[in-house]
Specification:
Family: Belongs to the enolase family.
Organism: Atelocyanobacterium thalassa (isolate ALOHA)
Radius of gyration: 21 Å
Keywords: Cytoplasm, Glycolysis, Lyase, Magnesium, Metal-binding, Secreted
Number of strands: 16
Shape: globular
Order of helices and strands: EEEHHHHEEEHHEEEEHEHEHEHHEHEHE
Distance between the termini: 51 Å
Largest sheet: 8 strands, mixed, barrel
Low-confidence stretches: none
Mean pLDDT: 98
Bound molecules: 2-phosphoglycolic acid, zinc ion
GO molecular function, one term: phosphopyruvate hydratase activity
Strand order of the largest sheet: 5-6-7-11-12-13-14-15
Cofactor: Mg(2+)
Number of helices: 13
Length: about 425
């Protein structure tokens, strides 16, 4: 049973405060969890509680959330059975009583929720993926590696937020990771040769100024080929457009020009014809449901269309999408909804409706590696956790290496069993 809960304010990868929670059990076993934080957040995400005290961390402190854990959550959870994850999460949701967790803060609730799960796993001497996923957890994910950063994750002129590679032709996760790292360094040389070297963005991808968004795709292709891999056959491309960020008065403003949604969809279809792109996330703005439908009609049979800001890991929003035949995949971010139980419920709703799931980090991260265990636990087959530098990203990849080793013969790399996006 839960003996004590302790929360503190720590820093994330951008140097902003976030929450860390320790849950200690009567057996002496404990779990520690740290909460991530987004920059290009969807408006329907659960509420991240910040102090708004401009005398500390420019208002970004999280001491109110820490206090809520100490004064409101802890007294209710002491003595509860840590294996009753659902009941514990529901107790917190009930104390909060709002629809978006704005009373206690989704950051407070999620920190406790994850620390409880980790403590419970320890109590059974099980790795987290095995505790959450049971005997069936054995699929190693395709990493979606974000090699060029733009949008609100970098100070460059690139409008689209993420340009990713997916090593679909690898034999194992370990091999996929090596291919990705080699392409990352190959891209570094390509950029240096052209005087485009410029440091990295929030997720560790290079952040050069470019002449167009399309140029980023050309650079990726060159980097893949220079590293000795076959674009499309071995390594495919993916983008997170994060179009909320450049949607202005019903128009999509990118490459210095304003475009209607229909023009934008045509443009994306053309890119899909020209490049080995197998996945596009948030192609349209979060409330542009009709155009999302059109986009799904024209591209949904060809590639993976992922809803991030669109669905915000929320069952209600996903249900609406399923009904309207919008997108065919969902990005899963624990802190968008704010508890492990609700995250698992959204994942199973997606799976029951043949929507792919992609387990994801946030642009503001910590050394917490929960998502590496989660992606294996639910056999999602895809993880999005950034580039091949910055330890808050690499920590997840390294955790996956350990999990693959631990699974041994029973580990299966997702593409081997047809999991993930369709490959033409
Ligand atoms: P965020 O970005 O964490 O800043 O929201 C990640 C994403 O959009 O997928
Ligand atoms: Zn996104």
């Amino acid at each position: 049973s839960i003996k004590n809960i302790h929360a503190r304010e720590i820093l994330d990868s951008r140097g902003f405060p976030t929450i860390e929670v320790e849950v200690i059990l009567a057996t002496g076993n404990f779990g520690i969890a740290q909460v991530p934080s987004g920059a290009s957040t969807g408006s329907y995400e659960a509420h991240e509680l910040r102090d708004n005290d401009i005398n500390r961390y420019n208002g970004k402190g999280v001491l109110k959330a820490v206090t809520n854990i100490r004064e409101k959550i802890t007294p209710c959870l002491l003595g509860m059975n840590a294996f009753e994850q659902k009941i514990i999460d529901n107790v917190m949701i009930e104390i909060d009583s709002s629809s978006n967790k704005e009373v206690l803060g989704a950051n407070a609730i999620l920190g406790v929720s994850l620390a409880v799960a980790k403590a419970a796993a320890k109590d059974l001497s099980l790795p987290l993926y095995r505790y959450i996923g049971g005997l069936s957890a054995n699929v190693m994910p395709i990493p979606m590696m974000n090699l060029i950063n733009g949008g609100s994750h970098a100070y460059n002129n690139v409008d689209f937020q993420e340009f990713m590679i997916m090593p679909i032709g690898a034999e194992s996760f370990k091999e996929a990771l090596r291919w990705g790292a080699e392409v990352f360094h190959s891209l570094g040389k390509v950029l240096k040769k052209r005087n485009l070297m410029s440091g990295v963005g929030d997720e560790g991808g290079y952040a050069p100024n470019l002449n167009s968004n399309k140029e980023a795709l050309d650079l990726l292709i060159e980097a893949i080929e220079t590293a000795g891999y076959k674009p499309g056959k071995e390594i495919s491309l993916a983008m997170d457009i994060a179009s909320n960020e450049f949607y202005k008065c019903g128009e999509y403003v990118y490459d210095n020009t304003s475009h209607s949604a229909k023009e934008f969809i045509d443009y994306l279809s053309k890119l899909v014809g020209q490049y080995p792109i197998i996945s596009i996330e948030d192609s349209l703005q979060e409330e542009d449901w009709d155009n999302w439908q059109l986009c799904t009609e024209s591209l949904g049979n060809l590639i993976q269309l992922v809803g991030d800001d669109l669905f915000v890991t929320n069952q209600e929003r996903l249900r609406k999408g399923i009904k309207k035949k919008v997108a065919n995949s969902i990005l899963i971010k624990l802190n968008q909804i704010g508890s492990l139980t609700e995250t698992l419920d959204t994942i199973s709703l997606a799976s029951r409706n043949q929507y792919n799931t992609v387990i994801s980090h946030r642009s503001g991260e910590t050394e917490d590696t929960t998502i590496a265990d989660l992606v294996v636990a639910v056999n999602s087959g895809q993880i999005k956790t950034g580039s091949l530098c910055r330890t808050e990203r690499i920590a997840k990849y390294n955790r996956l290496l350990r999990i693959e080793e631990e699974l041994g013969q029973s580990a299966i790399y997702a593409p081997k069993i047809g999991l993930g996006p369709k490959v033409p």
